[in-house]
Amino acid sequence: MIKVLGIKIIDRIKEAGLTQEILSHYSSLITTRLGFHEVTDNVCSREAYLIIHLKDDHAGSGKLIRELEPLGGIVIREMNFSGSEKQEPESEGDGIIEILGMLVARQPEVILSVQKLLTAYGCYIRTRLGVNEIFFGEPAGLIILELTGDNGQRKLLLKDLGRLEGVHVRKMIF
Q1: 3-state DSSP call for residue 3?
Q2: Integer Cα distance of 57 and 70 in angstroms
Q3: Which domains are seen in the chain, by residue range?
Q4: Which of these, 109, 54, 115, 110, lies nearest to 81 by C-alpha position?
Q5: Helix count and strand count (H, E) for the chain
Q6: Which residues, in sequence order, are CB contacts of 37 under 8 Å at separation 6+?
Q7: Which strand ranges, in their side-by-side order, compose the sheet holding 167-173?
Q8: pLDDT tens track for 69-112
Q9: Are 2 and 101 in contact (CB under 8 A)?
Q10: How many C-beta atoms surround the C-beta of residue 72 within 10 A?
């Protein structure tokens, strides 16, 4: 199984230290980590987001989540890729931050189709992270997207990705 955690830190100045302490304790489970918050010349947001790709260790990831859950000031979401079957990404409402996870078969025609879609919808993708992965013994790419902009266009992207063979899509909203 492939597990991706999304963590929203509501007040990173107060909560990031405790969150970081727990994540450091479980660093051997974390294969990839992406953190971001809004920064401009005038603003440094107190709200932050972490996207964490975990090793296939069900017991360890369960312990990590159980230690994070009681922390005040954070929200946790999960994406699980556990089978070769297609499934509709869960919709958790209209939030501010929408994260898509895609597991993409390493087949040239699939990769080209995904790339064409991501290019076509590029104005709605704020952040993109790609990681190599093995899924059921086959090479795959795990792509994480932070979406922005028009909600209708984001829904169309999700629908278009869902039509592709060899692509498994999951979603989390904060």
Answers
A1: strand
A2: 21
A3: 1-82 (3.30.70.1150), 85-174 (3.30.70.1150)
A4: 54
A5: 4, 8
A6: 12, 44, 45, 46, 47, 48, 49
A7: 125-135, 138-147, 98-105, 167-173
A8: 998 899 999 999 987 666 666 555 556 789 999 999 999 999 99
A9: no
A10: 9
Neighbours of 156 (CB within 10 A): 15
Q: Are 143 and 63 in contact (CB under 8 A)?
A: no
Q: Which two tokens stand for residue 131?
A: 């990681």
| Token representation of residue 22 | 């727990």
Q: Are strands 48-54 and 30-36 parallel, antiparallel or unpaired?
A: antiparallel
Structure-block tokens of residue 165: 């063979």
Question: pLDDT tens digit string along 103-148?
Answer: 999 999 999 999 999 999 999 999 999 999 888 888 999 999 999 9
54 within 8 A of 64, measured Cβ to Cβ:
yes
Helices (H), 5-163: 12-25, 58-68, 108-120, 151-162
In the block, tokens 């994260």 appear at 99
Query: What are the tokens at 168?
Result: 């498994």
Residue type, 29: L
Q: Judge whether 97 and 173 are in contact, CB under 8 Å.
A: yes
Give dist(CA 131, CA 18) in Å, integer: 27
